[in-house]
Design goal:
Layout (H helix, E strand, L loop, with lengths): L3 H23 L32 E3 L5 E3 H4 L5 E6 L4 H16 L6 E7 L2 H10 L6 E4 L6 H4 L9 E5 L5 E6 L6 H6 L9
Parallel strand pairs: 3-4, 4-5
Antiparallel strand pairs: 1-2, 3-6, 6-7
């Protein structure tokens, strides 16, 4: 039979563990698969493009600081826009597959562009460690950022959108691509041309 002292020690340890768990569960935590939460006040006023709708007008700075009009620059071929951030673990994990996919596409294949929801300094520093060969544009996360306008209402990263050669949104994907999924997910987009 346990002694009175042993019972008190177990009860004290349980109380300390319970208090620590309560502090942990009630304290703020950052889900590293999500961008900073957009302000909800502007959510109702943000125009979000639906599947089948034209891609919204998006002009964003490239890493050289020059504006890139996505619709004009990537017209006539399918376009995969992948929203990511340097702090997003699943984004980083899928980038080599996105890079290999982008390099495998021919003259009529799917173009890939990265939309970094991050500071230009963080993106440049990240790309020195994990280089990719597809173009990158950037923007700070906001209630009306480009990923939200393309349908990412939850602010979860990574987030991908497939735009057809005609400029219309074909598909959206919340979360990372599984190995081998990119090819199947984009299949058929390359045959939709403006001819």
């Amino acid at each position: 039979m346990p002694s009175h002292r042993a019972v008190l020690l177990v009860a004290l340890a349980a109380a300390v563990a319970g208090a620590a768990a309560g502090v942990y569960w009630s304290g703020p935590r950052l889900d590293r698969t999500q961008a900073p939460a957009p302000a909800t006040a502007a959510d109702a006023t943000v125009a979000v493009a639906d599947i089948g709708a034209p891609m919204p007008p998006l002009t964003l700075p490239g890493l050289d600081g020059q504006p890139v009009d996505l619709a004009a620059r990537y017209r006539g071929r399918p376009l995969l826009i992948n929203a990511w951030a340097s702090w997003c673990g699943p984004c980083v994990e899928e980038m080599p597959a996105l890079d290999a996919f982008a390099r495998s596409q021919g003259a009529r294949g799917v173009q890939v562009i990265g939309l970094a929801l991050d500071t230009p300094e963080a993106v440049r520093a990240f790309l020195t460690r994990v280089p990719v060969h597809y173009p990158i544009v950037h923007q700070l996360p906001a209630a009306d950022d480009a990923s939200v306008r393309l349908g990412n209402g939850q602010g979860v990263l990574p987030y991908s959108v497939l735009i057809g050669a005609d400029g219309r949104i074909l598909k959206r994907k919340l979360g990372p691509f599984r190995p081998g999924e990119l090819e199947a997910w984009t299949r058929g987009a390359e045959i939709q041309t403006n001819d």
